Structure formats: structure tokens, C-alpha cells
Amino acid sequence: MYILSSKQIAAADKATILKNNISSIDLMERAATQCFQWLHQRLQGQNIPIHVFCGIGNNGGDGLVIARHLHQHGYNVNCYIVNFSDKRTDAFLENYSILKEIATWPTIINGENDFPEIAFEDIVIDAIFGNGLTRKPEGFTKKLIQYINNTKVFTLAIDFPSGLFSDKSVSHAQSVLKAGHTLTFQTPKLAFLLPENKDFINTWEVIDIGLDEDFIEQLKSKTYYITKKDIIPIYKPRNKWSHKGTFGHSLIIGGSFGKIGAVTLSASAALKIGSGLVTAYTPKCGYNILQISIPEVMVEVDDSDALTYFNFKTKPTVIGIGPGMGVKEKTAIGFEKFLKENKLPLVIDADGINLVSQNQTLINYLPKQTVLTPHQKELERLIGTWENDYDKLKKAVHFSKKHSLILVLKGAHTVVIDGDSIFFNSTGNPALATAGSGDVLTGIITGLIAQGYEPRNASILGVYLHGKTANIAIKETGYETFTSSTILTYLSNAILDLFIEEELQDIENEDEIDDSDNNINT
What is the pTM of this model? Predict the structure, then answer.
């Protein structure tokens, strides 16, 4: 699914209006009516006070339509106009007139003295500012946002939480509304997926308002939100004439004294995801552990307690390197020699990334499309510090393009970056924040490349399945008892889920735990 900027969304609006010979008012009516129906389906006429705060632009026009429908269906609704400017959009003015025609006059807010009383049990609908905001809210509008935040009332944001920027970082957090849930139009927004915005975006979902899909396709956005619908075409079905040689040979290099578990997890993951053959190359101290833990995996050994020589005899299809490897001087020397001689596809994680960061001339020896899977601190060592999450993405894209490498930035919405193409993952939850989770991901991606997946698709599919295991398992394990081995246990469930027919919904982060404190349930 594409992620569009505010300018691209505006262009798609215009294209849809022109193609379908409708007015902007018609499009607004369509979008806002769907928001009303979302709320109506959950409230079923309950007499809960609902406060609709409308700006004086098109987002405010959406709010006016919602207020009208709520009034017509007998809800206890109060509508307010946040009068922060003399300018009005035509769509706002027309919907304001329609609302008055049914004898519902909104209350005008001109200052702090006009703020209404809001109880914790009420509902607030935020339609003050929309997706195209270019400067932070100020004056009494800022204080209104702070007032709503302080009530801790459930807030439903329409398209975008007021004060949050679509295409740049938050610089004044006190001016941003904290939305309990957001109904956004047509596509996810980049701001929803960035860690620094977590206080303002709780849960969200996409409302399809019927924008012209052909036009959206022509925009050729380079930013994507990966859902099940996007994963299914990537998956490669197996031919009945296949044999183990068909699915490649993964070599996992890693481990050191006390850290053999990392390479064990990676090798297990490569095997579990379907690599035809898997070999682990590890110090001698890991030999017995691996042979006992994973009898299906072949083992070669290096020096006694740490990797030194990198003189494996296996002829693999792809190499995953780094988990538990350590950064001792002899390991660093051997690693450098290995990179200078290697021509095979690589997946580099953990200490492999750290050694490259320490000696960035090694980047020049990495094959094109090498996959690097850094966590936050490893990424910082690799590309340097950043000002904010937008700047981090910008620097990561520059690094990827400059060196023709693929970055997998691990996080709540793990991001795969290939040049200027950015893929945000939709699966996963905090259960994955556990030791060894990244080692398993390295093995999954390595095993997929062994089977013939291009590194980009292997990364996207691997990240999706890795996260999906947590979505499935969490109902039985909870967060605390989920471990990296649980990922391996549920990996088959994640794959099988691809073939379960269901209504594919374009919905937030696919976290399947119901949080009754943050959602409207009846």
C-alpha cells in the first residue's frame, strides 16, 4: 500500500473530482460520512456527550458533516468552530450553511473563555487541522489542544491529529493533539509510523474514500506500508519436482564464547524458513551446542573461543554473518579478509555491522544488495547521529543509495530501505522486544535469499513473517513470556496465514490485542 504525502493526497483529490465529475463537497461528504458510520457502528445510539471541534478549513468541513449526521441520528452532540483565522475554505462554508439549515448552530470559540466543559467520559472528535498543516498551532488554538489533552478524554482524530505535521518532524509537542484513534483517508501517513510521534498516534486505520487508484499508481510513490495484500505476490510457491538443492544453502557465521545462542537461533531460523541446506560456522566452543540443538544443521569450526580464520569449506548460496561474533582484534582482521575475498550475497547483523562501522572502508567490499539489519545504536554507528526520525530516514536513504545496500531498520514498524524506496512493515508488537529476536530475523532473511528471493523481497517478506509470529502468538503467550524461540515456533503459522482467505482490511499496525482503554467498544 502506498504512503502518500499531503501534496500527493491533494493531487489525488483533484484528479478524482475531475475524473468522476463531482465536486469537492461531494468528496468531503463521502469521506466524512464514512467516519460517522465508523462511530455510529460502535456507539449504536448511546447517549454519550460528543464534542466536535472544527477548524475553518477542509478538515473542519469534515467535522461539520460528521456533526450533522450525529445530530440527525439523535446523538448528544455539540459542535464548535475554532475561529483562529478570518479565512474560510469554500467547502467549510457550504457545510456550515447546511448545518445551520437543520437548526444546528455551532458554538464559536474565539478564546479561552469559550472552551466548553469536557468530562472524561465524553468523546471528542478532532477536526481542527488536517493533513496539510504547515506551521504549529498558536494562541488560544494551542491552549485548546492542551486543554483537550489534559482532560484525557477519548479523542477521535479525523484524517490527522491536529498539530501533527505530515511531512516533517514535531518541533513543538505542546501544540499537538494526542489522538486515541485516528481515521485517516485513503492511505497511511508517514508521520504515523515514526517513533517520535508515538505520543500523538495511538491506533489508526485507513478509510477508503474512493480516490482515483489509477492516478495514485501514476504518482509512483517510493514509500510503502506493507500489508498481507502486498506480501502474497512476493511469496514463491514450491514446485513438486523440487529437492533440497533447489532451495539453496545458507551459511551462518557467528558466535563466540558465551554467545553461541545467537548463531544457533540464526541457523535455526534459516532452516525453519525453508533453506534447503544450512551450515553454521562457529568457534570450536559452539560445536557440541549446535550439533545437539539443531541436528539438521551442519557445523564447521574456527578457533577455540572466537572467530579468527574464516576458512570454511562449505560452498553456500548466501551468507548471514555477525550474530554473537564479537569484535576482538583477531576477529576483526579475519572478518576484513573474508569481506575482501567474498563474492556471495550477504546478510550482515550485530557485530558484523559494528566491525564495518569501525572500519568503513570495508563498505567498498560489500556486494551490491547486501542486507544490513541494524538496531538503533548499530545504525547510529553506521550512518552517524540524526536530528529526528525524518532526518534518520533521509540519512539512511542516502547511505543505501550511495553504497547500493539494503538497510533493515528494526523497530516498532521495521523499515526496509532499498535506495530511495522505503517499506514500512505492518506486523509485530512489543513481544518482539526480546533477546535474540534480531538473530532470528537475520536467519529468516538469509534463508529466503538462499531460496532465490531477491534481497529486497527477502527482507520485506522476512520482516513481515517475523512480525506476524508475534501477532499470532500473543493471544497465547502474552508479551512477557514470548521469546525469540517463540518466533521459530510460530513461523509456520505466519506462513500458513498467507493462505487464509479473509477480508483484507487496510488497518493500522495489525496488533491483534484488544485494548479496551484505547478503543470504543460496546
Answer: 0.93
